[in-house]
Amino acid sequence: MVKSAIYFTIATIIFSLLVLFGNSGAEQIALDPQRVLCIYPFCLIFGIANTLVVNKNIDGAVRWIVHAVLTVCGAFLFLILPAGLEGSSGNFMGFALILFVYGIGVLFYALITKRVRAAIAEDKKLTKSK
């Protein structure tokens, strides 16, 4: 629950900054309560997905598949659909954007995790050799 609140805070700040700096020209994005409240269910689902992905009782591949499904479907249901994109092509583009952002996020997570594990292994190796 605490993680979800942290995710909600970060997501709301990012959304507010996007609205603040993205409002130029004829089309203005509104920072209305409905849009902000739609962020919280997504953050709850994302928190659950992150809790499941670190659960060692579940097989690694299954954890990541469940994480991907929960995160992408949650983002689509609570961020893209309420945004009211025009037609099925708008929803498809929103879904594609979510998949792209998710892929970039997983890539960064994998790279950081790999470096951290390598640094820990190197540290253990140096500690044993002393």
Provide tags for this entry.
single chain, 130 residues, mainly alpha, 4 helices, elongated
Your description of this structure?
The chain is mainly α. The protein has one domain (2-105). It has four helices and no strands. Helix 1 (2-22) crosses helix 2 and helix 2 runs antiparallel to helix 3. The longest helix has 43 residues, at 87-129. 8% of the residues are buried.
Offer a concise description of the structure.
With 130 residues, the protein is mainly alpha-helical. It contains four helices and no strands.
Topology:
Elements: H1 2-22, H2 33-53, H3 60-80, H4 87-129
The chain-level structural class is mainly alpha
Query: What's the story with the biggest beta sheet?
Result: none
Helix and strand element order: HHHH
Helix content: over 70%
Strand content: under 5%
Rg, please?
Answer: 19 Å
